[in-house]
Task: structure prediction
Amino acid sequence: MRVSRKRKSLLRLTIVPALITAIIVAVLYGTLTLLNYDLFSSSSSVLLFASFGSSAFLLFMIPHSRAANIGRFAKSYIIAIVLGPIGYVLAALAGLPLATGIMMFIMSTLLYTTHSEHPPAIGAMLAFILYRIDVYGIFIVLFGIVLFVSFHKVFEKYIYQIGIEIESRERFHD
Result:
């Protein structure tokens, strides 16, 4: 039985990247559970976790996207864990709405000027401010960065190949 080109393409461009995305999020969740971190004890943890889910989708499902660059991903989250606690202190001094707006402006500007455009990291930065995430949250984000970079390295050749294939198809259809 021959597998049609369309079915092979669906498997190569959709199913496998979706499985990689699911695996990385499951590994992140499983590791946090093994470390006795209760993801659902606060909405702050859920927001951090959700930002990583969005990142997984970008990195593995849309590898040709500007935001899917692994370097941009890592830099953006590092910026988030630096600015988040600063925003938390600013919120205590100037109020939450003003601090959130100022930090959004600073983060957006920094992401753009440092070529670190990875929007889900903004959610992580906001979680630090809005939910007063402690130092443990910084370690969770750092662990997530290491995990994602590791997975990306393992699947780099595959991601590069599907990115080229997706890009060439888009050019053909435009």
Summary: The radius of gyration is 18 Å. The chain has a mean pLDDT of 82.
